[in-house]
Amino acid sequence: AQSVTQLGSHVSVSEGALVLLRCNYSSSVPPYLFWYVQYPNQGLQLLLKYTSAATLVKGINGFEAEFKKSETSFHLTKPSAHMSDAAEYFCAVSVSGGSNYKLTFGKGTLLTVNP
Amino acid sequence: DSGVTQTPKHLITATGQRVTLRCSPRSGDLSVYWYQQSLDQGLQFLIQYYNGEERAKGNILERFSAQQFPDLHSELNLSSLELGDSALYFCASSVAQGTGETQYFGPGTRLLVL
Which of A32, A95, A102 sits opposite B48 (nearest CB)? Predict the structure, then answer.
């Protein structure tokens, strides 16, 4: 069964600083990986997804993530944080095989951006 | 705006009651997923429908059921409600069903059981 671990339930950065949100996955088959963002009182919005086409994936709002098979990681980064980036971020995995196409989510990382 | 709509936005009810949550997928999407988000369990997959047929079940209690109608909207029925059922319930939709398909999430229904 697949699983996702997000290291750090809360990350705090200063405005303009690098954002790094960590995600490690566990899967016996090649995974599809996703990052979603949830703003307060809103639903989840897709930031980016990895589907094996390229290991460096660029998403919306200046975010990107790199798939590293050897490290089973899919960390999310952004060079310069904005106040508007404050939200909760979820990493998710989906694997091929069978008929269940569910997303398995990590527990989320709450990003705080300080002025 | 993802194009997925969910009603109602908020729901307050008492233990033992039954409620129905409604989801309308994005235009053209055939697959609907239901997820539950709670503080202790996080985001958990409940059930998936594709073009009217149930395709996969996750951690869905027997007191919960769902269906997808011919017009592709879906309903999640929660019965004999308990305090622990209080959570945010999300619906998501995708064009097809497949591992790499992007799931688009609705704004959620916040259920409070008193």
Answer: A102
**Nearest-by-Cβ selection for B56 from A36, A99, A107:** A99
Neighbours of A77 (CB within 10 A): 14
Please give the structure tokens belonging to residue A63.
């975010």
Rounded to an integer, what distance in angstroms lies between the CA atom of residue B32 and that of residue B27? 12
CB contact under 8 A, B42 and A43: no
Query: Which residue spans within A1-115 are E strands per DSSP?
Result: 3-7, 10-14, 19-26, 31-38, 44-50, 56-58, 64-68, 73-78, 87-95, 104-105, 109-114
Q: Tell me how close the Cα of B98 comes to any Cα of chain A, in angstroms.
A: 6
- Cα atoms in the 13 Å half-sphere on the side-chain side of A48: 22
Q: Are B24 and B93 in contact (CB under 8 A)?
A: no
Confidence of residue A63 (pLDDT cuts 50, 70, 90): very high
For the beta carbon of residue B17, count every other beta carbon within 10 angstroms. Answer: 13
pLDDT tens by residue, B25-63: 999 999 999 999 998 889 999 999 999 999 888 889 999
Q: How many residues does chain B have?
A: 114
Averaged confidence pLDDT in chain B: 93
